[in-house]
User: Fold this.
Amino acid sequence: MRPTTIVLEDSVYVLLGNYSHTRPKVESTNERGLLLVRGNLTDEGGKKKIRWNENHVVKPQANRYSHPLTELVGGGGTGAVMLDGTLVFPMQAKKEDGTSVLLSMSFTPSKKNWELLSKTPDEGCRDPTLVKWEEDEYDEELFMMAHCAGGYYDIYRSTSDGVNWNGHLETITRVWGNSHK
Assistant:
């Protein structure tokens, strides 16, 4: 599982797979578990560092979309912080037949609970990342981009904090490479 990150002011949140070499594997499952690590940005003698200071086991509340899903992992991209402080992470999982699906997971600090949200309408996509678009302080949308069949990237939109995802808006073609120059 690739780490999924969110930066909020001086805090860094990283959603990771929780692997244990001491705990025996549960037969007939492939559940790895999730762990949220939080750190604070510090400046110690002119050197910027992240001081990791919190670890939380993530156990999202299941809903009608998540019951038949297995292998829930973070998307590996970035998440988003909504206006009310809710953290939204891109996720992927597998259906019983092995097909990949995309969904999102949120953490609402005021409620202190994790919730799996609706999955996107398409299947077979992977490696999702989120971007938040904010028109003003009352209007925000989430966009999820993911690598899909045929080598294209599809974009999905949510106007409800990741609770519901609309079918892909456009397919992005002719985008190639991973250079950060």
User: Anything to note?
Assistant: The mean pLDDT is 80. The radius of gyration is 17 Å. The CA atoms of residues 147 and 153 lie 4 Å apart.
